[in-house]
Write a structure and sequence with these properties.
It is an enzyme of class 3 (hydrolase). This protein is an alpha+beta fold. It is built from 2 helices and 9 strands, in the order βββββαββββα. Strands 2, 3, 4, 8 and 9 form a 5-stranded mixed β-sheet that branches. A 4-stranded mixed β-sheet has the order 5-1-7-6, sandwiched between helices. The structure holds 8-OXO-2'-deoxyguanosine-5'-triphosphate.
């Protein structure tokens, strides 16, 4: 039995009542928060900054811890623990080549949204999202 938990660091960016979600070329129909797995020895905020730079060409501004959530990982067949930071942006995100899509959502919006985002992050942010 494996007890490995996938550790993920991610950003909740809300602008004008909408949450930023992305999908990757590897799974273009699955939408989730920008972010990813830490490299060895990397601190959470370093992972956040690296992933946001790599995926969106932006620097996280005033990251604030939002929550640590656990759920089934969307792409790997593994349990995932994801630490989410509420992040402001001062630049317009420009999706890098590894991304397939970028959307601003107020709810699931008919998309295939990763379980942790659908069941935990969207409910946590509900008050800040447009209806
Ligand atoms: N970034 C991110 N990953 C999530 C979320 N929800 C969720 O289940 N995951 C899953 C998807 C993948 O199974 C895993 C993260 O993988 P990833 O492929 O985005 O991470 P990465 O950029 O570090 O990956 P890699 O290409 O270096 O392997 O966590 C989420 O909201 N954001």
């Amino acid at each position: 039995m494996t007890t490995d938990v996938l550790i993920v660091i991610a950003a909740a960016v809300v602008q004008d009542g909408r949450l930023l979600v992305v999908s990757k070329q590897a799974a273009p129909d699955v939408f989730y928060l920008p972010g990813g797995k830490p490299e060895p020895g990397e601190a959470p905020l370093e992972t956040l900054a690296r992933e946001m730079h790599e995926e969106l060409g932006v620097t996280p501004y005033k990251p604030k811890f939002l929550a640590t959530v656990e759920n089934q990982a969307a792409l790997e067949n593994q349990w995932m623990q994801m630490t989410v930071y509420a992040v402001e942006l001062q630049q317009v995100p420009q999706p890098a080549a590894e991304l397939a899509d970028l959307r601003w959502i107020t709810s699931e919006d008919g998309l295939n949204v990763a379980p942790a985002v659908r069941e935990q992050v969207l409910p946590l942010l509900r008050d800040g999202l447009a209806s």
